[in-house]
Amino acid sequence: MADTTSELDETPSIECFQNYTAPEVFIQGIAGIVNQEDVESMIIAQKEMLQRFEKTNEMLTNCNLLSMSHLKTTSQELKKHTQMLAELRKDLDSTFKRIAAIKSKIKVQYSDVQKIINGLQVF
Fold first, then answer.
1. How many whole angstroms from its chain centre is CA 57?
2. How far is CA 66 from the centre of its chain?
3. What was the pLDDT predicted at 35?
4. What is the rounded distance in angstroms from the CA atom of residue 81 to the CA atom of residue 77?
């Protein structure tokens, strides 16, 4: 009887692992070493972080969509303002050319009056 109790205290024989592959036996051995509470707390922490990352990702997606919308609106407004400035510049150039033409015509037609006016100006 003493021989039977000593056999039970020893490590299991290879016969009990015959239905398992080597990796499965290895995993079972490691599973016995790892604390299950620690594993569960890690899984909970990972799930919480996943939820945070999903929320952050959704917020960034919404921010990108909003930014794209504002960019589109702003680009259209900028294009309109740029066209308006180009038209204003053309109008101003045309106005200055007309003023220069009128001045030259006045100088030719009223050159004697221009000389009198230039003579009166004393600063």
1. 11
2. 11
3. 83
4. 6
- Give the H or E element holding residue 25: helix 22-33
The DSSP letter of residue 51 is: H
Amino acid at residue number 44: I
DSSP letter, residue 10: S
Token pair, residue 44, equals 């909970």
The two three-digit tokens of residue 116, written as one number:
């009198």
- With bands split at pLDDT 50, 70 and 90, how would you rate the model's confidence at 1? very low
- Tokens 């290879």 correspond to what residue? 14
pTM summary value: 0.48
121: which 2 tokens?
């100006």
Residues 65-92, mean pLDDT to the nearest whole number? 97
Report CA torsion sign: 30, 36, 38, 39. positive
